[in-house]
Specification:
The complex is a heterodimer of chains A (338) and B (269).
Chain A: E1 8-19, E2 22-33, E3 37-41, H1 48-55, E4 63-68, E5 71-72, H2 77-83, E6 84-87, H3 99-109, H4 114-127, H5 143-155, E7 161-165, H6 173-188, E8 192-197, H7 200-206, E9 209-214, E10 217-222, H8 224-231, E11 234-240, H9 246-256, E12 262-264, E13 269-274, H10 278-290, E14 295-301, H11 305-313
Parallel strand pairs in A: 3-8, 3-9, 6-7, 7-8
Antiparallel strand pairs in A: 1-2, 1-4, 4-5, 9-10, 11-13, 11-14, 12-13
Chain B: H1 3-24, H2 26-47, H3 55-88, H4 90-95, H5 103-129, H6 138-166, H7 169-178, H8 180-185, H9 198-206, H10 208-219, H11 235-238, H12 240-267
Helix pairs in contact in B: 1-5, 2-3, 2-5, 3-5, 3-6, 3-7, 3-10, 5-6, 6-7, 6-10, 6-12, 10-12
Classes of the chains: A alpha/beta (338), B mainly alpha (269).
Chain lengths: 338, 269
């Protein structure tokens, strides 16, 4: 079979990788058109990092094939390495080198001359708003600054494909917003990006196409909207003042909703899927008012990717920043039902 | 660019990076110089009076041994440095770059060689303070230092291999040092091998550290006053410099390919 057409920047076919008895990847296919962002979404241990490590030549697949920028990752790893920039899930910066020195070193190792590497490093330091810190050892940086430096490292050689493995894991909200902004700029420049994340919001914000991966398999794919459409409908949420009113509320929501409501007693909340949107909301409130139920909060939500994940896998893909992020050690999280 | 120039350039970049690390963490250098100074002082003043009957002669004898032991310990620094780079993900970044494969290892061992040279310098000054002198020719002295550095470099490759199989910095910290103690003490570094009981004597005679220590003594002209600290008739003892060179070559021939192949395997896990 010939290598993929040039309009496809990254292609993987039936990738399989086993660690001991754990099947980390169980036949993963993916394709990223040039200049687009693919979000690989899944919980810890789903196989995201393994996929990234194969595509960046850090790991050989047991079977299957992959091409990056037209080069076979197994047969021609050096050509692949020249075409990619990798930013890891922990910032792989040398903490004793300054920001500038880190980027200079990476430039030199891409084969740039001393002066080119130096110019490029200065350019990126200022583009990533590290001017004031550029000549300080990077161990003095905040988490967000380190991540920016690591991202900059992936861009030194202006590679055709940038791979970002969980770029915001462990960052505070400000650091996350910062990183998103930079990825946004990258995309505007026409770079092809493969992004892995366990944050649904992140995939929604940044990716053109999302692949949902779980237990080493791609279980769904499409745009964020397409995925949300798979779950269908909106959700009506009512929070009541008194737990004693939950039963009556559930009764009302059963009447206006399109399936059986669920009750979250701790939060005194009842949820139900609705097909008629605002109309169902007004109707529910009218009936609750008739029954003198005091409503504290009410909301109508389009399904989030969280709902998508729950619908697809039967478990949530919620944030667990303290969890082990090593594909080899972690299994999928326990099923959780509402 | 040819493979060799690319290799040299990438190794140079990694060496620079490692030396910058040493410069920014002076405590690393402190470890590499403080221990030999401590040994020089301890052995010169605590043991010198009870080993043999001429403390000044013992100090003269001692320096070659401490030089050999110190450069041998260089392997432990390589072990720890290698394990730390693996643990921190620096190796992953290197591996994702289109750089020469061996450059990470060459850059590590080359930087550790430079640290080793600084250690030798500090120790020589310390030796001069306790009465040690270079009594041979200038050329012999230069040869002596070069031989010590070659041994340091060879030991560094053993260290790199151990660092790669350690799996973590904690393991590397003990694995890097623990084997150095018997290996450096069962040698003629501190006492003559000929005074040891049978099996230990045989081990010491064939121990490269004995050869390095004795060769250094010969080349620095420190053998005139050794008295009871004389040497046995074993071949490696009688041909210390030659055996030292052979040992370095054998260590490099075994451990450089081992470390490179282990590096590829470890890094692709």
């Amino acid at each position: 079979m010939p290598p993929p057409a040039s309009s496809i920047a990254v292609r993987a076919e039936a990738l399989v990788k086993t660690f001991g008895t754990t099947r980390a990847l169980d036949g993963v296919d993916l394709e990223i058109p040039s200049g687009t962002v693919l979000g690989l979404l899944g919980p810890n241990g789903a196989g995201k990092t393994t996929t990234v490590r194969i595509l960046t030549t850090l790991l050989k697949p047991d079977s299957g094939r992959a091409f990056v920028a037209g080069h076979d990752v197994v047969a021609d790893p050096d050509a692949v390495r020249r075409s990619i920039g990798l930013s890891g899930q922990y910032a792989a910066v040398d903490e004793h080198l300054t920001g500038y020195e880190n980027l200079y070193m990476v430039g030199r190792l891409y084969g740039m001359s001393r002066s080119d590497a130096s110019t490029r490093a200065r350019e990126l330091i200022s583009r990533f708003r590290l001017d004031d810190a550029g000549d300080r050892p990077s161990k003095t940086y905040s988490g967000g600054m380190r991540r920016r430096l690591d991202l900059a490292g992936a861009l030194v050689a202006q590679p055709a494909v940038v791979v970002l493995d969980e770029p915001t894991t462990g960052l505070d909200p400000r650091g996350r917003m910062d990183t998103w902004e930079i990825i946004g700029e990258l995309v505007a420049d026409g770079t092809t990006v493969l992004l892995t994340t366990q944050y649904l919001e992140e995939a929604d914000q940044l990716a053109d196409t999302i692949l949902v991966i779980d237990h080493g398999k791609v279980i769904a794919g499409g745009t964020a909207d397409q995925l949300k459409a798979q779950v269908g409908g909106e959700r009506l949420e009512i929070v009541v003042a008194d737990a004693a009113e939950l039963a009556a509320t559930a009764q009302v929501l059963a009447e206006v909703g399109s399936d059986a409501p669920t009750t979250e007693e701790h939060q005194r909340k009842v949820l139900v899927k609705v097909d008629t949107g605002p109309k169902a909301l007004v109707e529910a409130l009218r009936r609750l008012d008739q029954q003198n139920v005091s409503v504290l909060d009410v909301g109508l939500h389009r399904p989030t990717l969280d709902d998508v994940f729950l619908a697809l896998t039967g478990h949530l893909a919620e944030e667990k920043p303290e969890a082990e992020t090593d594909d080899k050690k972690t299994k999928g999280r326990k099923a959780k039902s509402r | 660019m040819s493979v060799i120039t690319a290799n040299a350039r990438d190794s140079g970049v990694v060496t620079w990076r490692n030396l910058m690390n040493v410069r920014r963490q002076p405590d690393l250098l402190l470890g590499a110089t403080l221990q030999p100074i401590m040994f020089v002082l301890l052995f010169s003043f605590v043991f010198a009076n009870s080993i043999g009957d001429d403390p000044a002669a013992y100090r003269e004898f001692l320096m070659g041994g401490i030089f050999a032991q110190t450069v041998a310990f260089n392997s432990a620094y390589t072990t720890i440095g290698m394990a730390a780079d693996l643990e921190k993900g620096v190796i992953d970044r290197f591996r994702s770059l289109p750089m020469a494969r061996a450059a990470v290892l060459v850059g590590r061992t080359a930087a550790d060689l430079a640290v080793s040279a600084i250690g030798l310098l500090v120790m020589s000054l310390c030796g001069l303070l306790v009465g040690w002198r270079i009594r041979g020719s200038f050329l012999d002295a230069v040869t002596g230092y070069l031989l010590l550095l070659l041994f340091s470099f060879a030991m560094s490759w053993i260290g790199a291999f151990i660092g790669l199989i350690s799996g973590s910095v904690q393991v590397a910290q003990s694995a890097g040092f623990i084997w150095m103690f018997p290996v450096s003490f069962i040698s003629s570094a501190f006492v003559s091998a000929s005074s040891m009981p049978g099996p230990l004597k045989a081990f010491a005679e064939w121990n490269p550290i004995t050869a390095i220590a004795d060769a250094a003594r010969d080349l620095f002209g420190n053998t005139a006053r050794t008295g009871v600290l004389g040497r046995s008739d074993a071949w490696p003892v009688q041909h210390a410099a030659l055996y030292a060179l052979i040992s370095c070559a054998v260590i490099l021939l075994i451990f450089a390919p081992l470390a490179v192949s282990k590096y590829r395997k470890v890094a692709s896990k």
